[in-house]
Amino acid sequence: MGFLIVLLMIGGSWGIEDRIVVVSPHWEGIQREFERGFREYTLRRFGKEVGIEWLDVGGTSEVLRFLKSEFSKRLEGVGIDVMFGGGIDPYMELSRLDLLQPYRLPDSLLSRIAPEIGGIPVYDPQYRWYGATLAGFGIIYNRAVLDIIGLPEPITWEDLGNPGLLSWVGSADPRSSGSVHMAYEIILQAYGWERGWEVITRIGGNVRAFTRGANESVKDVTAGEVAYGLAIDFYAWAQVNRIGPDKIGYVMPEGLTVVNPDAIAILKGAPHPEAAGKFLEFVLSEEGQRLWMCRKGVPRGPREYQLNRFSVLPDLYEKLRGLTAVSANPFLRRGSLRYDADKGSRRWRVLNDLVGALIVDVHDDLVRAWRAVVRRGLVEEELRLLCRPPISEEEALRMADRWDDQEFRNEQMAKWRAFAREKYERLGGKPRPDRWGRVATALALGMWAAFALPYLGWALRRRSLRG
Predict the structure, then answer these.
(1) Which of residues 232 and 334 earns the better pLDDT score?
(2) Percent helix, strand and coil across the chain, each rounded to 5?
(3) For 334-390, how does the pLDDT look when each residue is reduced to its tens digit (9 = 90+)?
(4) Which of 49, 121, 336, 390 could form a disulfide with 39 if both were Cys (CB 3.0 to 4.6 A apart)?
(5) Do the strands 120-121 and 130-142 form a parallel or antiparallel pair, or are they unpaired?
(6) 273 near 79, Cβ under 8 Å?
């Protein structure tokens, strides 16, 4: 009997490759836990360990840009099996470009996955991508800092645009952080285009400095460098668990945010298709979903890293009650915001470049203008000018269809930067000359002259003597 089982295991392993190549914006903890779990899963199920080769090309936006560039050179495949993580907007764009390989999960797995949450699909009806976990978006804040300087706990996104929070807000650059991009997209959909840009611009005026990664701005909050930060739930909960809920708080604005699937998909032309399919099955199985939810050290849970994530299996929340790192059940959350995933996906890159041109790249100019508007009493006409975007929502969607045209894209971004600088200078004036910088430059030149001129004189005299 034992010999028969071994034969079956060996026979079942013939069709599965010994590794897969995965591109992912996920952090090391997720990669380590899922690689270990998948090795054990394949050894137990197929009699052989299947390894994972991880490709790190940056955040979600950078992964999407990388894949599109690679597929433009080799449409039949790019030597990568799976994309893992990054929300759903990039997957919807890759689906439109026909760059994903459909894979239907077995009915025993598919029947347990919720088809949607809050109006957002959890998996593609054509099985090109699946939500591997869920992510919420909100505001992390440092209770200790708020108590010391007398700032309020946040409730809504617009609270971060309070003029009393100048330099106390943290945010990553959405061009390098998919989760912060989602926060800005959610704000636009929650408040509408015009009002949404007012909220984003005021937040931008309060940001101390834009970091490259979302985890950096979250750590700035826990270190007390800033009091508030835009944060995806698992980064925030990790800090709450580490520092303590009496010191660090996290809020998801009621009716103004969403819980969004964080997807996984097989790429077109995957070089190891059998193993890639088994990886999807593992991630979406109860065995894989326990790694997201359970506390570190719980049997069949994560061993090295606690991931603090939600599951896409609604029945797992009751089954694992008392064993999970997150206590909330997102499927029971009530909210009025109906997120338009197709719209968010279509304008992903346009929105990134808009925020870059209007907020991040001209941040010093924005802060100077925002301070001047606050100092003059927040005159309504000045606020409208400060926060007015250069294009309408309809124009942004039309431009999205042409955003692969690099000449057109560069032309629009140049116009937006000029538009932003002009209105910020109109409200806040031009940058003052850096008097101390000029003094330092003059001193440096003087020191150079004091040392260099005598040497030059000596060199010339020596040359004349030789002649």
Answers:
(1) 232
(2) 55, 15, 35
(3) 766 888 988 999 999 999 999 999 999 999 999 999 999 999 999 999 999 999 999
(4) 49
(5) unpaired
(6) no
Record: fold of 2-132+262-332: D-Maltodextrin-Binding Protein; domain 2 (3.40.190)
CATH of 135-258+340-428, one of 2.70.70.10, 3.90.800.10, 3.40.190.10, 3.30.450.40: 3.40.190.10
- Bridging pattern class, strands 19-23 and 82-84: parallel
Give 116-140 as a DSSP string. Answer: EETTEESB-TTSS-EEEEEEEEEEE
**Separation of CA 73 from chain center:** 26
Closest CA to 325 of 386, 449, 237: 237
Percent of the chain at pLDDT exceeding 90: 78
pLDDT digits (tens, 9 = 90+) for 252-278: 998 999 999 999 999 999 999 999 999
φ, ψ for residue 392 (rounded to 5)?
-85, 170
Helix or strand or coil: residue 206? Answer: helix
